[in-house]
Amino acid sequence: MKRFSFIFLLMLIVISGCAKKSQIKQSNTTAILHGWVFNVENGNPVKDVKIMLFNEKDTLVINSPTGKFSFQTKPGTYTVSVTKKGFLSEQNKISLTSTKEYKYDIILKKEIPLSPEQKEAQKHLALGIDLFKKGKFVEAKKELMIADSLTPKDNAITHNLTEVNKKISSIVDSLFNEGNALEKKKKFEDAYTVYQSILTYEPDNKNAQEKIDSINKIILAKQQPTPKPYVKTKTKKVNVENIYKQGLALYSKGKYREAIGKFNTVLRYSPSHKGARTYLKKAKVRLKALGG
What one-character-per-residue DSSP string does 15-60 give? Predict the structure, then answer.
């Protein structure tokens, strides 16, 4: 009789375990995340609690009256967010890497009255999260940085700021790859535009600024006209002696003014010409004597 009772009790335990496991139906293509939300002070389940499981593609929400929850979703990386009035919100990252069950309990702390700085930080946090979901990552970062400056040790703010920075870094890396590809194709104007857009995400990005400066030099060089090759002009050869003889002939005819012009020409090309210098003086004296 005792042996029969023991076997019957064992069968009940096995059936009970199977019944509990069968409450969660699992597909071959989905992961299951289930657990409880507990109050850290007394260990009791937190009732009427809101649990969210989300990533960039999906958002699942459970409003649990008992504190128990169960999500069935595709494998991937998610954020678990838990909110309950009178308690501090809790938000954590979780990886559901395969199609199996994941047991995940969440602990909530009673909310402490917020200071004016904390209240203001929560406003910026909420706005930052909203902007992030809308894909406005730069604006989201600004709001979250304000929130972080007000309450630097807030886990939710730090978590969301990290996520925004990861997203911006991913976009910047993609833009760098695009810019490099355009440079290789000699499409410098298009590459210039891409590198400029990086600065909208990271204004102090030195690599992007160096790329912009480098391409700017290339574009400016292309816009400058090509200088004409220098051609050395041939200097016309002057027959100084012929000019000198012309001057002498004019001098002998009494045409002193014309002779002076010829002698000056000779001295311009041959400053050491003694004959031209001598007759220049004589011509000037004769011209002066004639009142010229």
Answer: HHHHHHHHTS---TT-EEEEEEEEETTT-PBPSSEEEEEE-SS-EE
Domains of the chain are: 23-112 (2.60.40.10), 114-224 (1.25.40), 241-289 (no CATH)
The token pair that represents 200 in the structure block:
């909208």
For residues 11 and 45, the answer to whether their CB atoms sit within 8 Å is no
pTM value?
0.44
Per-residue pLDDT tens digits of the chain, which is 292 residues long: 444 444 443 444 344 444 444 344 555 688 999 999 999 989 999 999 999 999 988 999 999 999 999 999 999 999 999 999 989 899 999 999 888 999 999 999 987 788 899 889 999 999 999 999 999 999 999 999 999 999 988 899 999 999 999 999 999 999 999 999 999 999 989 999 999 999 999 999 999 999 999 998 888 887 766 666 666 555 566 788 898 899 898 888 888 889 888 889 988 888 888 888 998 888 888 888 877 6
